[in-house]
Amino acid sequence: MASTSELTQHLECYVDTARPPADQAASLNFITSLVNKDLLTIEVLVKEMRMYLTITDNVIRARGILLLAEVLTGLSSKPLDNATIHSLIGFFTDRLSDWRALRGALVGCLALLRRQANAGTVSASDAKVVALSYRENLPVQSLAQQDRKLCFELLECLLQRYPNEVASLGEDLFYAISEAVDGEKDPHCLILAFHIVEVLVQIFPDPSGPLASFCGDLFEFLGCYFPIHFTHLKDEDADVRRDDLSKALMSAFSSTALFEPFVIPLLLEKLSSSLPLAKVDSLKYINYCASRYGAERMAKHAETIWISIKRAISNSLEVPAKSFTSEPLLGLGFQENEIATEALILLQKVTMQNEALFLNLVVRDEDINNVFNSIASHESYTNIPLQGRQSLHAVGRILCIITKTSMASCNRVFESFFPCLMNTLEISMGNSSKDFTLNENSFSSKRFNFGALYLCVEFIAACRDLIMRTNEHAEKFGTADETCCYMLQSSAPTLITTLAKSSNDVVDDADIYFKVKGLQMLVTFPGYFLQTPTAMFENVLKTLMSIILVDFDKSLLWKLALKALVHIGSFVDMDHESEKAQIYISFVVEKTISLVSQDDFNVPFPLKLEAVSEIGASRPNHMLKIVQGLEDAIVANLSKIYVHGDLKSAEKTIQLFECYSNKIISWIDETGGLEEVLYRFVISIWNCVDRCKDSSNQVQDKGLLDATMMAMKLAVGSCSEESQNIIIQKAYGALSSGISIPFKDSMDDSSSVKLENLHLSEQLDKFSLRDEWILSLFASVIIAMRPRTHIANAKGILHLFMTALVKGCTPAAQALGSVINKFGTPSNEVATSTGCTLEEAMEIIFRSKLWNITEDGVLRGSGTSHSSKVGLTELCLGFSSNKLLQVHAITGLAWIGKGLLLIGHEQVKDVTKIILECLLADDRIGDSELRQGLLETSRELPSVMRSAADAFHILMSDSDVCLNRKFHAKIRPLYKQRFFSTVMPILHSLIVKSDSSLSRSMLFRASAHLISNAPLIVILSDAKKLMKVLLDGLSILSEDILDKDKLYSLLLVLSGILTDKCGEEAVLENAHILIDCLTRLIAYPHMMLVRETAIQCLLAMSELPRPRIFPLKTQVLQAIFKALDDPKRAVRQEAVRCLHAWTSIA
C-alpha cells in the first residue's frame, strides 16, 4: 500500500499545470501502476481525489477528472466490479455537461466503454444514458479539434458496441450525427465521421426503416466533402493522407443503396468538372458504388454513365510522345491519363453488371457508328488528321474493353462491326480454315485501309485475350460455336495470307506495327477455337524469318518480326500442338542457329545474336538447341583463332562470348534446372584448350581473353559443387600439360612443395601469350569456385599463381585473392577439400622466399646460385631493380589484400602497411636525390607510387570480375566502413607530414579512392574533416585525362554531401573553395558527366543561406554563362536551371 503522502504528491503533480509534462506523465504512470498492482483500489483513489474532482477551480477540476480518466484508460484489462463501473460511468456521464472539464469526461467515458469483456463492462442501460447525455450536452462543432475528435470516437464506440441502445434514440441519433458532422474540416475527425455513417447504416439495414427518410438530410452533409480537397498538411495531420480520406468517404457513399439517388447524380455532375482530380474520383466512386448498389439501381443511370465515360475517354487523350516502336502499345499509342484509364475500368465494370443494356448503348452509339461509316477515308495513318486519330483510338480502346468483358460481349461486337471491317479491307469471309487451300498468287499486295486494319487487329487481339483467359480457367466448352469464332474461322485464312504477303511492304511504322501484330495474334489462338492450317502456319513463319534474314535494315519491322516469332514460339509449345512445335523448331530455331555458324548471310552479327538469344528464351527446349549452336560456334571460332591463326574471327568470338554471358547464362540462372548446359559449355572450352595447346600461333587480344574469362567465370559460378570438382580436374589437366612454365603436376595433398624444382631456370619477367591464355582461364575457374570445391594440388597452384602474379597476370592475382577469401570460410571441410589451410596459404604468399635476385638484377626462380632470396613483400618494397615487377607485385598484393579484407582478417593490416610504404617511396628517397637524378630508376618511381595509390581502389571498390557474391566470395558486413575509418586517419596524417609534392599527390589520389568507394553515410559523419581532402583530390584527378572516371566518382560523393542536410556545415565552412573547384570543373573537357554534375552541385549550393553564398554569385554566374555554350545539350539544360537559381538570389 502506497503512503498517502506519496500518493498526494503525485496527484498534486499531475493537476498542477505548471509542472513539466514529463513529470505529469511519470505521476500518471505511478498511480496507474499502483492500481494495477492492487496497491491502491479505485475506491481509495476516488476518495483521495474527491477534492480535485469537485473543486470549483475549473483548471484543477478539469485536470483531476482527466487524471481519473487516464488512469482508467490504463486499466482496460483489470477486472472491476459492476457497481464500481456503474458509479464511474455515471460520474463521467454527468460531467459531459461540464464543458470546462469536458475532455476528461470524454476520455473517461471512452475508457469505460472500451473495456475488455472479461474485465467488466458498462451495462446497456448506462450506455444509453451516455448516448442521451451526448445528444443533449455536446455541441460538437463548437469544441476544439481534440475534443471534437474525442466526441466522434465516443459516438463511434457507442454505435459499434451498443447498437441496439443507440438505435432506440431514433431521430435524435440522426440529428446528433448530422450536427456533429456538419461543417467538420479536420482530417482526423472526418475519417471518424465517415466511418460513423458506415456503422449507422449497419444499425438500420431495413430499406424502408427510419434511415430511408433521413438519407437525404444525411447525404446533404456528406456530399459537400466530394471531391476531397486536401493539399495543405499540418504536422499533426501528417499521418492522414488524402487517399485515406477519399477511401473513407467512398465507403460512406457506398454503405447503403439508399444513397444511390443522391450519390450517382452528384458523381455524374462532378464528371463535367474542370478539375481532373474531381473526374478521377468520380469515376473511381461510381465504379466502387456500382457493385454495392446493384444492377437494378444502376440501370436507370446507364445512358448518362455511358455518355460520361465516352466523353472522359475522348477528351483525356494526349498526343503520343513517341512514334511506333517494337514495344506493345495501347491502341494507336496515345497517352491515356488517369481519367481515361479509370473511365475504361468503369466501362468494363458496368458492362459486366448490365451487359445487354450497355452493349446496346455502345453498339448503337452515333459517334462510334460515324467512325465506322468514315473508315473508308482512313487509307493511311499519316493522312488521318489528329482529331481523326484520337477518335479512332478512342473507339478502338472502348470496343476492345467491351470485347474482353465476356463471350457475349465479344460476339455482339464482332457481329456488329467485324463484317464492315472485312468489307473495307476487301477480305472474303466465305472460307473457313478447315477447307481453305493456300494460293498465294491469288492475293495482290495492295495497300490495306489503315483504319480498318487497326480496328480489325485490335478486335482480334481482344478476342484472343478473352479466349486465353477462359482457357486458363478451363471454360473451353462451347467457344468454338460462338459468333466471333465463326467469323474468325471464315476470315482468318484470307486475312493471314494477305497480311503475310504484304507485311514487308514498308509504308509507314503504324502500318508495319499492326500487320505484324495481326499475324502474331491470328496464329496464336488455341487450336480448339481457331485452327491455323499447317501450310498457312509455315507461310507465316517463312514470312517473319524472311524479314529477319533480308529486311534487317528496316529496324522497326525487324524488331517486330523478332518479337512476333518469340511470342509464337512461346505459344506453340504451351498449346501442346506437337506438329506446330516441330515446324517452329525447323523453320525458326534451326534457321536461327545457322545464322551464327555460317558466314553467307548479310545480317549484321549483333542482330544475329539478338535473334538467337530472344528466340532461345521463348521456351527451354528452344534454348537447349540455341545453346548447343552457340557453343559449337564459339569452339569453332576459338579453333580458327588459336589453331589456324585467323585473327579476323576474334571480334565475332568476343560477341559470341558476350551474348553467352549477358543473355544465355542470365536466362539459365533465372529459369533454373539447366546447369548441365553450363557444365557442358565449360568442358567444351577446356577440350578446345587441349586441342590448341600444341599450336605455334601466338594470339594477343585482351578483349577476347576478357570475354572468354567472364563467360568461364559465370558458367562455372552457376555450376554445383560436384560439377565444379570435375571442371577443376579437367582444367588442371589442361594447365599442367599446356603451359611452358615447368610445373610439377605430380604433387598431391600429402607431398611437399619443392620450390627449387618449380621454376628453376625460368626468367620471371617473361610470359608467353599461350601461357597467359591457359593460366588466365584456369584462374577464372578458381575465382568462380564454391568454398568447398576441391582444388587439386592447392599448394602448387598457389606457387604457380605467385609466379604468374609477378609476370603481370592480373587474373592470377585475383585468383589468389579469391582462394584466400574462401580458405577463410569457417569450415573444416574447406581445408580438407583443398589440402591447404588459410595459415599455410598465408605462409606461402607472405613469408616464403619464392624468387632470387641475381647479380645482374634479374629475378629468377628460387634455387639459382649467386643470388639473394626475396618474397612478395620484398618485391613490393622495391628489392628488385625492375620497377615493372614491383608494380605487378603491388597490384597482386592489393587483390590478395582484398580477399583478406572481405573476411576481416588481421593480415590486411600488414598488406595496408606495405602499400603505404610503397606510397611513400618518394619521401624515403628524398626530393633532392630525385632532382639531382642520383638514382637511375627515379623516373620509374611515379608509376610505382601510382600503383600503390590505385591499390586502395582495388581494396575498396566493388569488383564485377572477382570477389563478389556471384562468384561465392565471403563478404563480411560493414567491411568498407571499418577499413575506411582505420586507413583514412592514417592517410590524412601522412598528407600533413609529407614534404614531397609527388607523395602528397599520390596520398590525395589514394584518399580519393577511399572516399569515392565508401558508403555516403560514413562520409557524411566526418564531412568536415574530409572536405579538404576531397577537394584536393578533385583538383589532382582533373589534371590527367586517364583519371576522368575517378574524378567523376569523387564528384558524385561531393554531390551527395551537398544534397544532404548532414553535410551542410562542412559545405558552409568551405563554400569559397567549393565554388572555385566546381567552376573549374564546369570547363572540364574530357567528360560530359563531370561538367553536368559540377553544375548540379552549384545548383545545390544555391539553396544554402544567402549571406554565405551571395558574395560568390558573380563568380558562379560567369562560369555558368560559359556553360550555356557547351556542345552537350544535357550540360546546357543544367546550366539554364543553375543560372535561374543563382540569378534569383537577391
Automatic annotation (TrEMBL):
Keywords: DNA damage, DNA repair, Nucleus, Repeat. Pfam families: MMS19_C (PF12460), MMS19_N (PF14500). Residues 694-1101 form the MMS19 C-terminal domain. It is found in: Nucleus. One of its GO terms (cellular component) is nucleus. It comes from the Eukaryota. Residues 46-314 form the MMS19 N-terminal domain. Coiled coil: none annotated. GO terms for biological process: DNA repair; iron-sulfur cluster assembly; protein maturation. Key component of the cytosolic iron-sulfur protein assembly (CIA) complex, a multiprotein complex that mediates the incorporation of iron-sulfur cluster into apoproteins specifically involved in DNA metabolism and genomic integrity. In the CIA complex, MMS19 acts as an adapter between early-acting CIA components and a subset of cellular target iron-sulfur proteins. Belongs to the MET18/MMS19 family. This is MMS19 nucleotide excision repair protein. The lineage of its organism: Eukaryota, Viridiplantae, Streptophyta, Embryophyta, Tracheophyta.
